[in-house]
Amino acid sequence: MERVQHMTRSAIRRASNVEVNPQTKRNLQDLIINFSLILVCLLLIYIIVLLM
């Protein structure tokens, strides 16, 4: 158990040290926004179909 905790901590430390360049960060944000917009549209379509 102690070993697993140590590995997890070191992995988290390593991940937080990785520098994400701004372009990648912006692309990821755009992707998340697009994904949520698609989800909202699908939800609206589903509601409209239910109401008919």
Short key terms for the protein model shown above:
single chain; 52 residues; mainly alpha; 2 helices; 0% strand; elongated; acetylation; PLB; transmembrane helix
In words, what does this structure look like?
With 52 residues, the chain is an all-alpha fold. The protein is 88% helix and 0% strand.
What is the secondary structure topology, with strand pairs?
Layout: H1 2-17, H2 22-51
GO cellular component, one term: sarcoplasmic reticulum membrane
InterPro entries: PLB (IPR005984)
GO molecular function, one term: ATPase inhibitor activity
Biggest pleated sheet: none
> Mean pLDDT score, rounded?
89
Task: Give the helices and strands as they follow along the chain.
Answer: HH
Q: Enumerate how many helices there are, as a single number.
A: 2
Q: What's the quaternary structure here? A: single chain
Strand content: under 5%
Low-pLDDT runs of 5+ residues are none
Q: What is the percent of helical residues?
A: over 70%
Number of strands: 0
Radius of gyration, CA atoms, in whole angstroms: 20 Å
> Kindly, what is the distance between the CA atoms of the first and last residues, rounded to a whole number of angstroms?
56 Å
Gross morphology: elongated
Instruction: Please identify the structural class as seen in this structure.
Output: mainly alpha
InterPro entries: PLB
GO molecular function: ATPase inhibitor activity
Transmembrane segments: 31-51
Membrane topology: Single-pass membrane protein
